[in-house]
Design brief:
The chain is mostly helical. It has a domain at 71-109. It contains three helices and no strands. The chain has helices spanning 2-18, 71-112, 127-135. The longest helix is centred in the middle third of the chain and has 42 residues, at 71-112. It is elongated and about 125 Å long. The relative contact order is 0.05. The model has no long low-confidence stretch (mean pLDDT 78).
Length: 138
């Protein structure tokens, strides 16, 4: 049966190659020229005689169902998970607090140190005071 189908397909292909091409609607002014090819230019394949049989579908492998947890198991897991997340939150909060304390200590330490421009040497007089003295205003 497959050989007859393949033979019919091959006959139709050779007939379509030998027939002139239909005129395309876009090419009405210039008619399409048929291409003359010798019938031997197309390689003719011999019909297949061997057809591979289709393999039957594999039987589904039955796997054991995963052990399902009962209501009591789930109820016992829930408080443990809640306690674990609570402990993680507290740990993150304490780390955040420590970081804030460290930053605050650094800022306080910097604010206690006088800047070099604020330190006055003994006998240093401001420029405005010198101008007043030199002009005779004071």
């Amino acid at each position: 049966m497959a050989a007859s189908i393949e033979g019919a397909i091959m006959r139709e292909l050779t007939e379509s190659v030998a027939s002139p091409a239909p005129i395309d609607a876009r090419m009405r002014r210039k008619p399409a020229q048929p291409i003359h090819r010798p019938a031997t230019s197309l390689p003719l394949l011999p019909p297949r005689e061997e057809i591979r049989p289709i393999a039957p579908p594999r039987p589904a492998i039955e796997r054991p169902a995963p052990p399902s947890k009962g209501v009591e198991d789930l109820k016992s897991i829930l408080p443990r998970m809640a306690a674990k997340t609570g402990a993680e939150r507290e740990q993150k909060k304490s780390q955040h607090r420590q970081a804030l304390k460290g930053t605050l200590a650094e800022v306080l330490q910097k604010s206690k140190q006088p800047t070099p421009s604020e330190e006055k040497k003994p006998f240093e007089v401001s420029e405005d005071a010198l101008r007043k003295v030199l002009k005779g205003e004071a």
